[in-house]
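Reopening: ATP-binding cassette domain-containing protein still failing for me.
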Amino acid sequence: MIEAFGLTKRYGAKTAVYNLTFQVKPGMVTGFLGPNGSGKSTTMRMILGLDSPTEGIVTVNGLPYRRLDNAPRQVGALLDAKAIHGGRSAYHHLLCLAQLSGIPARRVHEVLGVVGLQDVARKRSQGFSLGMGQRLGIAAALLGDPQVLLFDEPVNGLDPEGILWIRNLMRRLASEGRTVFVSSHLMSEMALTADHLIVIGRGQLMADMSVKDFIAHNSADFALVRTPDTEPGQREKLTAVLTGAGGAVRPEPDGALRVAGLPLPRISDLAHEAGVRLWELSPHSASLEEAYMRLTQGAVDYRSTEDPRSGFPAGAPAGYAVPPQGALPGAPGVPGAPGTWAPPQGAPQPGYAPGPGRPVVPGQANPYAVPPQQPSAPPAAPGDAAAPSPADPTQRDSEDAR
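Support: Ran it again with your exact input. Result attached.
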């Protein structure tokens, strides 16, 4: 079990975490949610003794992490998958951790098999992809077979098979009576994985409840109602009837009506009494993402905006002709003729320029290449013989003869 009491962390004038009190209980997956900069990583670092609280205390199984006997055997964590010496192989990285904690070497082979890295165990980790690095970090967390596990963004970089695997792994670990604490920004994954949620915003606790209760407390259910598109008058008639019965009606962009405040049977009865035919009457329950956005919308520090694109005129780049409708670059025909489009002379050739990761295939001509123009010869001075072109074969032969 993880317990925090009045946990506060300040960095100078910046308060990263303020007065956090919560419990992470065994036997369930607890999701740790919050916007960027809300203090999630700082909280997890304090749990693991990497940062000291300014105020308050946090314990693991009743003791601060630094006072645990052989802590890696009791707590496993993945905070940063890149925390590994790139020159070491996956096997030797785990072996070093095992030897430091008195863990048998055979356990290294076991966890490599659990995370699916046994085939690359002897390869240097510096060549690992992001997903392989995540798997290695998870193997390190599982190495001591701990009862408490912390994961920070564990599905980052994993493919769909890996995401399904880590989801099932965390649920299996929790079913064995372990404490599993998972921080993630992927609401869809948390909805499928977590049993309980702890949500913070700007360093303060915002919610501590089950996933089901969290959605129920932070969402507004509604019904989607659709009338025949060919009879717009019926939609206006139904809107007036539902509004008169106390419902909140809002039109949707696709022509449907969003109705809140009335149960589905009541909506159906009102439509029947008014003689309005319904093409759709369906309930809508909010997702975890919708409930989360509703709760944390006032605690977001880094909010994106629309790109104004000021100073960038619309249309084709300067010097390029706009291709006619249906025309393709490089289509057969004379450049500039109707139905064709070609870049101007001397323009870069997109898709064919040599560069890193783009080798030139020997013998393959560039179908979009523009023939280079030969520089014109300077005018001959009076009384001088005309200088032949460097491409003149007779001139080349005479130079070879000399």
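Residues 2-210 form a domain with the Rossmann fold fold (CATH 3.40.50.300). If you still see a failure, please send the error message rather than a screenshot.
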